[in-house]
Amino acid sequence: MRLAIIGTGYVGLVSGACFSEFGHDVTCVDINEATIAKLKAGEIPIYEPGLDDLVRRNSRSGRLSFTSDIAEGVRDADAVFIAVGTPSRRGDGHADLSYVFAAAEQAAKALTKPCVMVTKSTVPVGTAKQVAEIVEKARPDLRIDVASNPEFLREGSAIEDFMRPDRVVCGVSDENAKAVLRDIYRPLSLREVPILFVDCATSELIKYAANAFLAVKITFINEIADLCEKAGANVQAVAHGIGMDKRIGSKFLHAGPGYGGSCFPKDTTALLKTAEDHEIPLQIVKATVDVNSQRKRSMGRRVIAAAGGSVKDKKIALLGLTFKPNTDDMRDSPAIDIVRVLQDHGAQVSAYDPEGRHQAEAVLEGVEFADDAYQAMDGAEALVLVTEWNEFRALDLDRVRRLLKSPTIVDLRNIYPPEQMRAAGFDYSSIGRP
Known about the structure:
Strand content: 5-15%
Oligomer: single chain
Largest sheet: 6 strands, parallel
């Protein structure tokens, strides 16, 4: 089929590359001409394992192309996927849908034949209805069916998630849109992937509800970790014990410094705003947002306590800045709050991240960025493990101890066994473990 993807950010580029891998003819559209020029030259603007090979292979085959001209991109398209950003709107926290609406109107005006327009961006309940009104006004002469197809991609494993998803959710209002989406995702039928067809409002809410529930699980285990520290229990054993219950499951029960990233923070906030509009208080989600926000700053205070109660004029080394490994995404990363707390208390922060330096430099001021982990920790009073990149899982502990001015390690991801670290001579602390 002939597909157009509007937006070459994380969701749009991954989706476009994977659809072309299915065998569809895909054109990715973006108004940022510099981004399109890079993609045409084989340069990938985001870090996602395997994405560069996927883009290059399908570009060479002719199934994947890029343009900044929306009319060229949607010409003769059977389906147009809108995958533009929906950031939190400044001032009230609602999802900013201006990019979605603009893309829908421009695409509708440029279409040359009947088409299905699909919102793949994360959008609040009722957005598909608004998009339908926009396209009807823009092209009353052309049949354009509007559908919803939210993404469930984890940064760092997005290609695997797209190719082998737990499910595909499609919100449709007529049989034509259902048939087109079924045909687009037909390659997944060989893997017997469930395709759930619902109405558009339900599809939109499934996405927000899923992210909110996962955010609740993360925040829940973080609070249990705090209790474990006071009670002398081990949060990893607690998580394992409750995760064995099939009703609960083990995923997203890893204690740490709090959630961040492109989805959970903005989606939980947007869900709360939508609920407020409908006069439905979501107390559990609200508590999750509040606790997570407080937790990030509390991690900075935890580092200060480990460093003897003061970090004034002390060098503190951070390993990992992105909100999770295998991405360069710094959006709402716990590292941002940790760095700011340390700097507010007079610390000199040195940091290293395998892929996030460029993004980190844009949001963190006054940080000394190192070229590798050992350079970052040289002469530091304390070493803080913030993101669990694989290369931090097997540090040369003898070298670490020699480089640190004080053998203090704060492990916010529980990477190392406490007994091993203490036996190696470190003043070691972690999350929710004795």
